[in-house]
Specification:
This protein is 41% helix and 19% strand. The chain is an alpha/beta fold. Strands 1, 2, 3, 4, 5, 6, 7, 8, 9 and 10 form a ten-stranded mixed β-sheet that branches. Strand 1, helix 2 and strand 2 form a beta-alpha-beta unit. Helix 1 packs parallel to helix 8 and helix 2 crosses helix 8. The radius of gyration is 21 Å and the shape is globular.
Length: 319
């Protein structure tokens, strides 16, 4: 009887949480600094969620430790829907880089919905790396092992691990040059101090259109809506880069009841369907998408395993 009573009380509490949400302002935690893609996303959807929930939605930046500080804060928050997180898929990379994680990426946070993605490109400086397409680039690197280098915003960044995936799968030997941020890496790629970079297509388009760098391939099953001139990796015979992208998502504390997760998913997806939200994100270089909580959970599980193997095989460590 005690077990049955406890179960009934837990069910009642769960139903109450879903029915009474929201009862006060909601905080959208961004585990990175202001001005980042995640921050832009949170501030784009926040006002629309506020309209839907009839409560203020406040974006709070909690940067540090590659997103771990803000993520841990949300993992330990009450599971009542009033503390949520907007994050990016570095969430699935950092667990393999840090030895003592303060949270479990699969258990301590609950997936709500994917909300956007951005695709990557393999970009080169044509003045120092004379390849016109991906196959020419592969041939050039193979013919000169160790001669060419690639930039990234730092060790363990998606730009770095994405390039290491390409190297591992194609058997390429190129030297990693880590920078302390994206700006320095792109500046030196444009200036010819480095040969190539695996980077987000929307952040490189101005330099591509000016002819200072060349986009040889983009990730994704289809060509980039931001730069459809560049062929996909798959179009050039590389079949493992379709789902290598920067995906953005809303997460809740892991203890959030399933009924409330379903409510949050429906509300977030409704906001993502608004034309003004979608148009805003497209202008920022992002592709609006949605998912079910189960689909996002499966993606997280897959990416955790994929990047763990790349980090182990490439022997990637933090600075």
């Amino acid at each position: 009887m005690k077990i049955l009573l406890a179960g009934l009380l837990a069910l009642a509490s769960t139903l109450t949480s879903a029915q009474t949400f929201p009862s006060r302002p909601v905080t959208l935690v961004v585990p990175f600094t202001t001005g980042t893609g995640i921050d832009i996303l949170a501030r784009a959807i926040g006002p629309r969620l506020s309209e839907r929930w009839k409560q203020p939605v406040v974006v709070e930046n909690k940067p540090g430790a590659s997103g771990n500080i803000g993520t841990d804060y949300v993992a330990k928050a009450a599971g009542d829907g009033h503390t949520l997180m907007v994050t990016v898929n570095t969430y699935t990379i950092t667990p393999s880089l840090f030895k003592n994680m303060p949270y479990d990426a699969e258990k301590d946070l609950a997936p709500v919905s994917k909300i956007a993605l951005a695709t990557y490109t393999f970009a080169v400086n044509p003045n120092v790396f004379p390849a016109n397409n991906l196959q020419e680039a592969i041939a050039l690197i193979r013919a000169n092992p160790g001669k060419y280098n690639f930039a990234s915003p730092g060790n363990g960044t998606p730009h770095h691990v994405g390039m290491e995936l390409i190297k591992l799968r194609l058997g390429l030997n190129a030297t990693h040059i880590p920078y302390k941020g994206f700006a320095g890496a792109m500046t030196d790629l444009v200036g010819g101090q480095v040969h190539m970079m695996f980077t987000l297509i929307h952040s490189s388009i101005p330099h591509v259109r000016s002819g200072r760098i060349r986009a040889l391939a983009v990730t994704g099953a289809q060509r980039s809506p931001q730069y459809p001139e560049a062929p996909t990796f798959r179009e050039q015979g590389i079949d493992f880069m379709d789902d290598v992208d920067a995906w953005y998502a809303v997460m809740a504390p892991g203890r959030t009841p399933p009924e409330l997760i379903a409510r949050l998913n429906a509300d977030v997806n409704a906001v993502m369907a608004l034309p003004e939200v979608r148009d805003n994100l497209v202008k920022q270089g992002m592709i609006p998408v949605t998912s079910s909580p189960a689909e996002l959970a499966a993606l997280i599980k897959t990416d955790l395993a994929r990047w763990a193997k790349v980090i182990q095989d490439a022997k990637i460590t933090l600075d």
